[in-house]
Amino acid sequence: MSNKIIFVGDIILPNLSNLKCISAYLIVENGLITERGAKDYFYKYQDNFIKRGYQIKILEPHQFLMPGFVDCHTHAPQFPNIGLGLDRPLLEWLDKYTFPLESQYSDEEFAANVYSKVVKRLINNGTTTACYFGTLHLEGTLELVKSAIKQNQRAFIGKVSMNIENDAGYYNDTEKELREVKTFVEKVFEYNNDLVNPVITPRFAISCDNDLMKKLSVIAKQNSCLIQSHISENKKEIEYVLSTNPECTSYSEVYGRCGLFDNKCIMAHGVHLSEEEIDMFVRKGASIAHCPASNTRLKSGLCPVRKLLNCEVKVGLGTDVSGGDNASILDALRRAMDVSEHLNLLGGKESALNWKEALYLATLGGARALFIDDKIGRLEVNQEFDALLIDLYSKNSPIDKYTYSVAHGEEEEILERVERFVYLGDDRNIVQVYVKGKKVKDIL
Ligand code: GUN
Ligand code: ZN
Most buried among 60, 207, 294, 349, using CB within 10 Å? Predict the structure, then answer.
C-alpha cells in the first residue's frame, strides 16, 4: 500500500482562543504532513493527485479528522485497581491500595501482561501520546516501554523513584535508585525509537528525600529528559511536605530548591497552588497535568484551571488512573468542564471552560504541556501525523442520527458535529487512530 495518503474532508484545529474547522485536503507522507490546502483545490486537480500515486481517503460528511488525544498523566500499573478504593483520600489510598499493587510489578510477566492491555486500551480511546508513571521496578517498567514501542504509541515513560520508607516496603535505597534510573534511561535510548522517551519520575516529596531529588534533577539535565511528578494535590499532603521542609514556604519551593524546575517539567494536579507558586510555574515554563477525575474521586479539590490558563501556565489533561476512574481523555475533557463549571457556580471569579477550550487541553494543550507541540497537535505542514478519524454514525454510535440543528452555514454545521462528539461520543466513534502516520486502530 502507498505510504502517501491524502485525506479530504473536515479537519478540526483546536486552539485555546479559536477552534477552527476547515474543509481541506491533507497529505501525509512517511508519517509527516507535507501539504494542506483547500478542498476545492484538491477537486480541481484531483487527476494530478491520482497520477502522483496517492492513496485517497474522502471523508463522509459525518466524519472528521482531529489531532490525537494527549494524556499528560497516568499510572499504567494502577489499571488493575481502576474503580477501587476511591472512598479514601490520597494518602490512605496510596498506602492501602496503590503501593501494595505496584509492588507486584517485580514480576515481569505480570507487568508485560498488564501493560500490553493498558497501551491497547489507551489507543482504543484515541490517546496517541501518553505520559506514564511505571513502578519502582527497572525491568517491569521496561515492559511498558516495549509495549508502547510494539503498539506504536507515542509515550513518555518513567521508572518511579522513591527512597523513603513506607508500610509496603516499596522503596529503594538512594544508591540503588540512582543506578537503576541511569540504566533505565540508557536502555530506553538504546531502543532508538523516536516515539518513546524516558522521563525522570520522582513520585512526590513524601516518597523522595531532597538528596535524591537533587541527583535526579542532574540526571534529567545530563540526558535532556523531561521530569514528571505530583504537586499540591491534597491539603494533608501539602501540610506534611511543609512540616518536613520547614525552611520552605511552599511545596513548589521544595521542588525548586532540588532543581526539578530547571528542567522541562510537568507536574500533576497543582490544585492548591498559591499565586507565588503559579508565578514560579510561569517563570520556569513548567506545566500542569490537570486530572479532574482523580481530584474529585480522591476528594483532593477543584483545580482552578481557568486561573492557571489566564496566568499563562501550560496545561494539559491527565486521566491519572487509578486515582481517576476512567482511561479516556474524552472523559477527562468533560470532567475538566464540570469542575470548572462547579468552581464558577460556587462563586469563582473566572468563567467556566467551554467545550472548545476543553478540546484544546485534550490535544494541542497536552502537546504544549509535554513540550512536543513542534511535533504534534496542530495537523499542519511539517508536523507528524497523530490523528483521529471520528465518525458520528459509526456502528453502535451513542450519537443519534436525526437531530435538530440551529446551524447557519457549513462551518457551524461542522462545529455542531464536533460539539456532539465532545459531549456524547466515545471510543465507538473513534474509528481510526494514527500515530506518526501509522494506523494503530481501525474499526471503520
Ligand atoms: N501522589 C503520589 N503518588 C500518587 C499516585 O499514584 N496517584 C496520585 N493521584 N497522586 C499521587
Ligand atoms: Zn498521579
Answer: 294
